[in-house]
Write a structure and sequence with these properties.
Number of helices: 3
Radius of gyration: 17 Å
Structural class: alpha/beta
CATH superfamily: 6-pyruvoyl tetrahydropterin synthase/QueD
Order of helices and strands: EEHEHEHEE
Number of domains: 1
Shape: elongated
CATH topology: Tetrahydropterin Synthase, Chain A
Strand content: 25-35%
CATH architecture: 2-Layer Sandwich
CATH class: Alpha Beta
Number of strands: 6
Largest sheet: 6 strands, mixed
Length: 150
């Protein structure tokens, strides 16, 4: 039996982050990105309307867009172990920037975080019996893209 694949693309996710633990000095500074996030969903059986997912019956895509806005869009993303975290939080408290704190920062880690969000929410929305996530792809520029396969 075949598998249906569905790609959902979320372009132009503008954010800023730094990778304070990187050995490359340029990664220690804040750097702006315009990410494109793609998730590939796989489906082994169609629903009653011959669709992979009846999106109107599920708020998962709307929830993901909201989560993207709250977590990435126009945010300064900082790792929770960044030595400068308190400074970033102080600037956020002074309304000088919007800060999002994640366990890890970088394209590879963002791909993993996005993948895990979809996996958890497909379960929560009771879609996992028919639909699963295959990959999360984060493109940070025209030369670099990272796929995460769980």
């Amino acid at each position: 039996m075949g598998v249906y694949l569905n790609t959902k693309t979320f372009p132009n996710i503008r954010c800023i982050y730094r990778q304070w633990q990187s050995k490359r000095a340029e990664d220690h500074r804040l750097k702006p990105y315009s990410l494109t996030i793609k998730v590939v969903l796989e489906c082994h059986s169609l629903d009653e309307e011959d669709l992979r997912v009846l999106w109107s019956d599920s708020d998962i895509e709307k929830d993901f867009t909201l989560w993207l806005g709250n977590t990435f869009v126009n945010k300064v993303i900082v790792a929770n172990d960044d030595p400068a975290l308190r400074s970033f939080q102080n600037m956020a408290n002074d309304e000088k920037m919007d800060v999002s704190v994640l366990p890890n920062v970088g394209t590879e880690r963002i791909a993993e975080i996005v993948f895990n969000w979809w996996k958890e929410n497909l379960i929560t929305h009771d879609l996992i019996s028919r639909v699963d996530i295959r990959t999360a792809d984060i493109t940070e520029d025209e030369h670099n893209s990272v796929y995460y396969i769980g």
